[in-house]
Amino acid sequence: MSSISGSMHIGASALNTFAVGMAVTAHNIANVNTAEFEPQRTAYATGPGGVGVQLETIFQGNGIARPEGIDTAFLAQAIAKAASYDLPPEALNPSGTELAREMVNMIATQRSYEANTKIVSTGDEMLGTLLDIKT
């Protein structure tokens, strides 16, 4: 699928995939103050034939993965400081949504979406040029 239309199809398919990813992130952010809300996560996979990207699955749950190298002492200090305000933990974040992670996901998805719009627009320009040459 190395044709111009094939490239445009791959780009358009990726746009649909990343639109779902953005909707999942927006859903998580919209429910940040919803008690007992379990955020969702998207997982992407390589598209059919090893080309493009596709949505593999959407996970739901409050599993927290700690990345390597995180400063756990600083994290413990921040939690202790927040607890000193005599607010119940659910008042700080009643859901399992972590806004920092969601914002990073949103930026990454946005950039991926933008990159794929370039693929589609470049294919469109190339097709237009070919049609101009043909006529």
Characterization of this structure:
The protein has 135 residues and is mainly alpha-helical. It has one domain (4-134). It contains four helices and two strands; from the N terminus they run αββααα. It has a two-stranded antiparallel sheet.
What can be said about this structure in brief?
The protein is mainly alpha-helical and 135 residues long. It has helices at 4-30, 72-83, 89-92, 99-134, and strands spanning 40-46, 53-60.
Keywords, separated by commas or semicolons:
135 residues; mainly alpha; 4 helices; 2 strands
List the helices and strands and how they pair.
Elements: H1 4-30, E1 40-46, E2 53-60, H2 72-83, H3 89-92, H4 99-134
Antiparallel strand pairs: 1-2
Helix pairs in contact: 1-4
Q: Sheet bearing the most strands, described?
A: 2 strands, antiparallel
Instruction: Tally the beta strands.
Output: 2
Class of secondary structure makeup: mainly alpha
What proportion of the residues form beta strands (DSSP E)?
5-15%
| Alpha carbon gyration radius | 21 Å
Order of helices and strands: HEEHHH
Instruction: Name the shape in a single word.
Output: elongated
The largest sheet has its strands arranged as 1-2
- What is the tally of helical segments? 4
> How many domains, in number, for the residues?
1
What average pLDDT do the residues reach? 79
Assign a percent range to the helix content. 55-70%
Distance between the termini: 25 Å
Which regions are unreliable across 5 or more consecutive residues at pLDDT < 50?
Answer: 62-70
Oligomer: single chain
